[in-house]
Amino acid sequence: MLVTATDGIWRVWNNNDTIDITMNELDARSQ
Question: Could you tell me the superkingdom of the organism this chain comes from (predicted)?
C-alpha cells in the first residue's frame, strides 16, 4: 500500500484502488 498526503488528504493506493481519506478518517482507522 502506498500512502501520500496532500493538503490534509491522504491518498491511499491499494490493489489498484485509489481512496481519498481525510486526516480525521485516517486517525479513526488507526485507533
Answer: Eukaryota
